[in-house]
């Protein structure tokens, strides 16, 4: 396990995720607890991580992308991926299972991704609440049940949510992305964006594709939906107000786009919010 070697991170060295997860190579490590930190510093594990949270919004940052983990979704973090965790509040409950790599692992387990949690997986997650710490192969049937939890994930996770945005390295694109974030209430057209930054539309299109591996429309849509998800967690804002704040004058268009990206309509997300978080 690798961690950043800085004095500011010294206070984290006794945290379970720094000292215990990889203590035994063949164990499955389980941990359910309130995060109790403003953030979890960058680190990585020798084991794959299943992360499910309750009670707030969580951002997970890697060297390449920023992930937004909404209610009733889980994040799969492959072994060796450096990441930091940033909850909206220290009161967020984290439910973690850490699995050792095996020779039979499929491609699913080598890719970081966010997936919806159905009722069956919710029941399984709640079942694991009785476990804490290392689960060793000799501890049957506990170890087999934990292994089955991992093995069933690909069958239950057929729809990956595109709730992640890559970081640009090109300075002009960094400035453009910052502009979009700071002016999220505007419906910024591609033509206007190119003009504002004195770049041809053709060059700008190529820049998005080359740097971020997605089109401007794809990036902009995900940015607006991620912002909408954050705003919907604010009980003071209606769905219509959120739509306007992310640049949609048409509520049906916003609702349809949200449903396409997130898999649920914003009105339903608001209704289920108390249940989901």
UniProtKB/TrEMBL annotation:
Gene3D superfamilies, alphabetized: Homeodomain-like, Jelly Rolls
Domain of life: Bacteria
KW Transcription regulation (keyword) present: yes
Stored InterPro entries: AraC-bd (IPR003313), Homeodomain-like_sf (IPR009057), HTH_AraC (IPR018060), RmlC-like_jellyroll (IPR014710), RmlC_Cupin_sf (IPR011051), Tscrpt_reg_AraC-type_HTH (IPR020449)
Any coiled-coil regions, as ranges: none
Keyword DNA-binding: yes
GO molecular function, one term: sequence-specific DNA binding
Residue ranges of domain HTH araC/xylS-type in the record: 174-272
Matching Pfam families: AraC_binding, HTH_18
Protein keywords: DNA-binding, Transcription, Transcription regulation
Protein's name according to its UniProt entry: AraC family transcriptional regulator
Organism annotation: Sphingobacterium athyrii
Lineage of producing organism: Bacteria, Pseudomonadati, Bacteroidota, Sphingobacteriia, Sphingobacteriales
């Amino acid at each position: 396990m690798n961690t950043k070697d800085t004095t500011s991170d010294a206070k984290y060295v006794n945290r379970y995720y720094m000292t215990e997860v990889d203590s035994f190579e063949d164990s499955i490590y389980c941990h359910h607890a309130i995060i109790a930190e403003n953030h979890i510093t960058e680190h990585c594990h020798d084991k794959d991580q299943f992360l499910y949270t309750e009670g707030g919004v969580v951002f997970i940052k890697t060297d390449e992308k920023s992930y937004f983990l909404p209610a009733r979704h889980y994040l799969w973090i492959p072994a060796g991926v450096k990441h930091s965790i940033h909850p909206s509040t220290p009161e967020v409950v984290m439910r973690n299972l850490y699995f050792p790599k095996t020779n039979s692992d499929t491609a699913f387990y080598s890719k970081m991704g966010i997936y919806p949690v159905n009722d069956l997986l919710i029941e399984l997650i709640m079942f694991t609440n009785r476990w804490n710490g290392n689960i060793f192969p000799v501890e049957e049937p506990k170890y087999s049940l934990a292994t089955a939890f991992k093995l069933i994930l690909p069958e239950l996770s057929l729809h990956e949510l595109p709730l992640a945005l890559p970081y640009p390295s090109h300075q002009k694109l960094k400035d453009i992305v910052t502009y979009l974030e700071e002016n999220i209430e505007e419906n910024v057209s591609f033509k206007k964006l190119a003009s504002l930054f004195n770049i041809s539309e053709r060059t700008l299109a190529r820049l998005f594709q080359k740097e971020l591996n997605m089109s401007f429309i794809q990036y902009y849509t995900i940015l607006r939906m991620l912002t909408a998800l954050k705003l919907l967690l604010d009980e003071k804002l209606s769905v219509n107000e959120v739509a306007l704040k992310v640049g949609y004058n048409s509520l049906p268009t916003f609702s349809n786009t949200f449903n396409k990206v997130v898999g649920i309509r914003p009105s339903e997300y608001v209704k289920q919010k108390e249940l989901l978080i």
